[in-house]
Design goal:
The complex is a heterodimer.
Chain A: E1 4-7, E2 10-13, E3 19-25, E4 31-38, E5 42-51, E6 54-57, E7 64-66, E8 76-78, E9 87-94, E10 103-104, E11 108-112
Parallel strand pairs in A: 2-11
Antiparallel strand pairs in A: 1-3, 3-8, 4-5, 4-9, 5-6, 7-8, 9-10, 9-11
Chain B: E1 3-6, E2 11-14, E3 19-21, E4 23-26, E5 32-38, E6 44-50, E7 56-59, E8 62-65, E9 75-77, E10 86-93, E11 102-103, E12 107-112
Parallel strand pairs in B: 2-12
Antiparallel strand pairs in B: 1-4, 3-9, 5-6, 5-10, 7-8, 8-9, 10-11, 10-12
Amino acid sequence: NAGVTQTPKFQVLKTGQSMTLQCAQDMNHEYMSWYRQDPGMGLRLIHYSVGAGITDQGEVPNGYNVSRSTTEDFPLRLLSAAPSQTSVYFCASSSRGPNTEAFFGQGTRLTVV
Amino acid sequence: GNSVTQMEGPVTLSEEAFLTINCTYTATGYPSLFWYVQYPGEGLQLLLKATKADDKGSNKGFEATYRKETTSFHLEKGSVQVSDSAVYFCALSDPGGSYIPTFGRGTSLIVHP
């Protein structure tokens, strides 16, 4: 029962480097989303997708790109890392509808130096 | 837009004490309401939910009642345990929107023996 799998678990980047955080789910969920968690700020939505080929911006999209070429995968790309992007990143998936539960990955702790 | 407001933490209790974590919401439609829990080093997982007014969600001794008149969904437990120490997030999913959940800032609960 894999659920939502995020890789890597930890990453240190230098300012200006780029990288991709991977997220995969095996539950055939239509909806996927990326959040960042910062102390005192809770979870803030970065980008989300309601199906393959469809993505939209959340509350804090600047500096991040996403694409959804398959139902299973939803990678998050940092274009040019900045110290302000130091955070814990969570990927989540859910099936269609307002009453459904969101399933979360274990998170990626990213430090930008 | 939609928003969720939670009481600030940390909440510190002794074992067997009564717990209340307040949550109020603003939504354009008639949302579904959720409580998620995050144990140290893990992702979020669903604790309970309620999908319409006056519904009561319950799980593991925790309860919350959907109060439309006060736009609230307060989390309660009669007797907390050390193992309940975690961060608790209130969330809503708006059927008039994208169904991607909106989260509160989270409330840290620390239970001492």
